[in-house]
């Protein structure tokens, strides 16, 4: 296991290097002078002489590769530079938004599992029956419905009309309910369909027939054998969902003015806060590669036949 993890970590190095180089290159050729943007963010009128002094102090007159190497060296040490908008280290700004994103991601994943697991199992057990059709229709609607439209609809019903939930922000504990439901509904619909398909695929396998021949009851077969095998493809999707949520659900966070990482990224893009955009992209890249590695490792827990040497 240690050998496999070390091998995966070594494979991630060129991936992360490529992402950092591409990110820095795109922001390097983006419109706008970083020195002028920083001065405008601090409320200072940017005269040509002052802009040139700031450019010199920020090292913007250095060649491209020199600037990239210096930036990459800082990234390795956790220094992503200063945010133009907040005049604070980028890492501090991102970390300050993480608690809100983690809270929203955790509640959304929990609600999704509460909905998707029983519905997926019920839909598979009652295949092609009325209950199955109802669940499949509802899941299809949930997948087809854009998250921004669902968020606005929930906001209109529960905040504007019924006035029982806050419309935005996180000043009250109830503020998290609407964004949580918005994120969880789409995920629950997708996972319900995936779990149903995975269970139906496993039901016809030889080991299930053998278990029934040995006299095991259906509940034991379902929960101790079928579900364990069915969760392997679900874990893959779960890894992608976790990575996306930890990176911040930008649309939902913006609609509900939730002070998370996703909303921070949207603000950074609109304000052309390039250091903050770079830090966010690197953060997203690290999340996805680490989550994917954890997902690959978890395959062995659900199916011991999968060996580490084969890379999950």
The parts where pLDDT drops under 50 for at least 5 residues are none
Largest sheet at a glance? Answer: none
End-to-end Cα distance, whole Å, is 11 Å
Rg over alpha carbons:
24 Å
Q: Structural class from helices and strands?
A: mainly alpha
Number of strands: 0
**Average pLDDT reading:** 82
The coarse silhouette is: flat
What does this protein structure show overall?
The protein is mainly α and 312 residues long. Helix content is 75%, strand content 0%. Helix 5 crosses helix 8, helix 5 runs antiparallel to helix 10 and helix 7 packs across helix 8 (177-203). The longest helix is centred in the middle third of the chain and has 36 residues, at 90-125. It starts with a helix and ends in a 10-residue tail after the last helix.
Question: Which helices and strands appear, and what pairs or packs with what?
Answer:
Blueprint: H1 2-28, H2 34-41, H3 48-58, H4 64-76, H5 90-125, H6 130-144, H7 147-161, H8 177-203, H9 206-213, H10 218-246, H11 250-255, H12 261-270, H13 274-302
Helix pairs in contact: 1-13, 2-3, 5-6, 5-8, 5-10, 5-13, 6-8, 7-8, 8-10, 10-13, 12-13
């Amino acid at each position: 296991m240690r050998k496999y993890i070390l091998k995966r970590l070594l494979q991630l190095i060129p991936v992360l290097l490529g992402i950092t180089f591409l990110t820095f290159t795109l922001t390097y050729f983006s419109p706008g002078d970083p020195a002028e943007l920083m001065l405008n963010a601090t409320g200072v009128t940017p005269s040509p002489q002052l802009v040139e002094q700031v450019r010199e102090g920020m090292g913007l007159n250095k060649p491209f590769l020199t600037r990239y190497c210096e930036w990459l060296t800082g990234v390795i040490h956790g220094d992503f530079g200063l945010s133009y908008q907040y005049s604070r280290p980028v890492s501090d700004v991102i970390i300050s938004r993480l608690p809100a994103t983690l809270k929203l991601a955790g509640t959304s994943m929990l609600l999704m599992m509460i909905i998707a697991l029983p519905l997926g199992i019920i839909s598979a057990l009652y295949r092609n029956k009325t209950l199955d059709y109802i669940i499949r229709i509802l899941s299809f609607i949930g997948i087809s419905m854009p998250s921004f439209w669902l968020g606005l609809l929930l906001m209109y019903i529960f905040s504007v009309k019924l006035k029982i939930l806050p419309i935005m922000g996180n000043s009250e504990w109830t503020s998290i309910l609407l964004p949580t439901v918005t994120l969880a509904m789409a995920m629950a619909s997708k996972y319900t369909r995936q779990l149903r398909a995975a269970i139906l695929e496993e039901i016809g396998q030889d080991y299930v027939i053998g278990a029934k021949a040995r006299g095991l009851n259906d509940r034991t077969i379902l929960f101790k054998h079928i579900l364990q095998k069915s969760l392997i493809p679900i874990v893959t999707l779960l890894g992608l969902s976790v990575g996306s949520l930890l990176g911040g659900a930008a649309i939902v966070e913006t609609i509900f003015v939730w002070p998370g990482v996703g909303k921070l990224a949207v603000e950074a893009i609109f304000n052309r806060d390039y250091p903050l955009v770079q830090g966010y992209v690197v953060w997203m890249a690290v999340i996805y590669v680490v989550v994917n590695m954890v997902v690959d490792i978890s395959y062995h827990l659900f199916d011991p036949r999968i060996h580490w040497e084969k890379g999950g």
